[in-house]
Amino acid sequence: MTRLLASFRIALRALMVNKMRSALTMLGIIIGVGAVIAMVAVGSGAKQRIADQIASMGSNMLIVLSGSSTSGGLRFGTGTVPTLKVDDAKAILAEIPSVKYVAPSIGGVAQIVFGNQNWSTIVNGTTPEILEIRDWPLASGRPFTQQDVDGATKVCLLGKTVVENLFGGIDPIGQIIRIKKVPFTVVGVLASKGQSTYGQDQDDTIMVPLTTAQKRLFGMQFPGMVRVIAVQARSLEVMSEAENQITELLRQRHRIPPGQDNDFSVRNLTEIASSAEQSAQVMSLLLGAIASISLIVGGIGIMNIMLVSVTERTREIGIRIAVGAKGRDILFQFLIESLVLSLIGGTMGIGIGILGTLVLSEFTEWPILFSIQAILLAFLFSGSVGVFFGFYPARKASMLNPIEALRYE
Amino acid sequence: MRVNKMDPLIQVHDLVKIYSLGEVEVHALRGVSLSIDRGEFVAIMGASGSGKSTFMNILGFLDQPTSGQYLLEGINGENLSRDELAEIRNRKIGFVFQGFNLLSRTAAIENVELPLIYAGASASKRRERAQKALAAVGLKGREYHQPNQLSGGEQQRVAIARALVNEPSILLADEPTGNLDTKTSEEIMKIFQRLNQEMSITIIMITHESDIASFGKRVILFRDGQVLHDRMNLTTTVFMKPGENA
Q1: Which is the most buried residue in A25, A178, A382, B114, by most CB within 10 A?
Q2: Cβ separation of A402 and B62 shorter than 8 Å?
Q3: What's the CATH fold of domain B39-63+79-232?
Q4: What distance in Å separates the CA atoms of residue B61 and residue B12, rounded to the nearest whole number?
Q5: Could you read off the pLDDT of A334-348 as tens digits, one per residue?
């Protein structure tokens, strides 16, 4: 124990003697650990954001879009002309057991007026199930109900962004707004969901009962038609099954002969989102790997300096061995030296990594996420880098022949 | 350990050392036999290449003979590991080198403490014994000077203090005055004589200067790896205090 303590003091002294060299060697580890911390924080921040967005989109969601249709030789793109009927939505719910909820909807951009304020946003006519499918709670008020849909009442739910732009500080519940000059009573405010996976503001929206939208706002051209049917499957496992069954059912109902293109399309949003999550995961790993390489390069720097140090101090090692230092005394002395270098470097690297990441996120507004595990891991990793890269030089020192070492100039 | 006080301190029998430098074999020692008793002050002389340094390295357990036997207080280093040899060096042998071999940028007292660190002594005990050893070589008050702040003679005295601090059985000095001027050399020899006479420390010293060798009580001359002659020095140089007459 006394000997170990003495080795520790000898090592610290040796590092103090070559301050500049020790600092530069540490710099390699500082940069390495700092980079690992920063990259992992940025990577897990991005991953976390995507995970939040997936959660905000609603779980197990399929979207059926009105498809390209052909009218007098002109082909229209997906969603431009409604080809889905409300009855299609009902049939999907009734006939496919793996489907839990459906919400047909029709919508478009409309001008909204409240008092002397106005705003342009997406108005969606839909059914109450949409709130279940998208897992979208209300911040205040009540949702509209099936009765509102049946009676085509002029009520609406506002997204957060719309409330902020139209109402300022006023409580919107019970107020009357005009959508395309039609008066609607605000019955509820949707909770905030933030940006979607594609960077769209999900709170910049208004929901009204489907029937009201059809009759009053958008439906005049195509009565009884909808652009989109949102579908929630019962579980993640049955999603592709549901996707196939919906496609089959709609082809039947739309009387599409085999070999002809669908006039609708089914999209699995969860799948898209989870592939986005996967790519974030890959990015996170990649960033971590690149940063680890710089840590390893830092470790090689330690090894390099320790080898130089052993050569330079050959005579000192010879003296120590001659007066009775055992192999492990010399081994520990140099191992402790490289361990101290790498651990001090690691500690400073953690500080600089955290600081750098905070500055980075300040300027770029990237989401960041620090994890204690990643920081501990970086610290332990820097320690093992010190032991790993310090071992060879230390062993070399401990094996020196004292006679030759004493003769070394 | 079975140490018979009547046995000689050092027993060497037919010591042979052969170095192979590539294809050439160098016979550094060609069968050396001698014994040294406790309290002797032996000067080993010889031209360079005579094998005296090789002999010293073997006596100091820094090197192993190719054949033959070497016993120090009955201990045979033949089959001992590196670490066991290190322990013997630590406890039984004090080295003084031609080039002083002090640790640079390290205070004198810490240089002296070095063998005690590897002996596992506590910090307070180390300090106490190192102070005593430095006082014994006349360096009281210079404990915290670094080697570059000391003269050659003072540095060699620090080295002597380091060699003595763990109370070894023998003190091995390899050309201890080789880097010193005549006056300082005599000072170092005076210290050796005093240590030998007053504290009955066994000293074995290599030198190629006959006037330095004349301080020893016994002079052994090496030539071509063999002992040429080994005789008591009847005209040992004894230092005169200033003003004294012979």
Answers
A1: A382
A2: yes
A3: Rossmann fold (3.40.50)
A4: 13
A5: 999 999 999 999 999
**ipTM of the complex model:** 0.91
Please report the sign of the dihedral spanned by the C-alpha atoms of residue A93, residue A96, residue A101, residue A102: negative
- Comparing CB atoms, the residue among A316, A321, A402 nearest residue B103 is A316
Closest by CA to B172, choosing from B40, B65, B82, B78, is B40
Q: Shortest CB distance from B57 goes to which of A2, A327, A403? A: A403
**Least trusted range by pLDDT, from A41-50, A97-106, A326-335, A337-346:** A41-50
What are A99-110's pLDDT values in tens digits? 999 999 888 888
% of chain B at pLDDT higher than 70: 93
- Rounded to whole angstroms, how far apart are CA atoms B57 and B61? 6
Q: Which residues of A touch B120 (CB under 8 A)?
A: 2-3
Facing residue for A323 by CB, picked from B105, B115, B121: B115
For residue A185, list its beta bridge partners: A155, A176
A-B CB pairs within 8 A amount to 61
Retrieve residue B21's tokens.
Answer: 């430098």
Region label for B237, one of left (φ > 0), alpha (ψ between -120 and 50) or beta (otherwise): beta
**Mutation site, A323, A329, A332, A409, interface B, largest B CB count within 10 A:** A323
Alpha-carbon gap: A22 to the closest alpha carbon of chain B (Å):
17
Chain B environment of A403 (Cβ under 8 Å): 57, 62-63
CB atoms within 10 A of CB A404: 10
Q: Which of B54, B89, B118 to mutate to test the interface with A (most CBs of A within 10 A)?
A: B118
pTM of the full structure: 0.72
Q: Is B189 exposed, middle or buried (0-12, 13-18, 19+ CB in 10 A)?
A: buried
Give the domain ranges of chain B: 39-63+79-232
Q: Which residues of B touch A324 (CB under 8 A)?
A: 86-87, 89-91, 115, 118-119, 166
Of A3, A17, A323, the CB nearest to B105: A17
Coil/strand/helix, residue B49: coil
Q: Do A323 and B60 touch (CB under 8 A)?
A: no
pLDDT surpassing 60 at residue A46? yes
Residue B121 has pLDDT above 80, yes or no: yes
Taking Cα atoms as reference points, which of B57, B63, B47, B77 lies closest to residue B226?
A: B47
**Share of residues in chain A with pLDDT > 70 (%):** 95
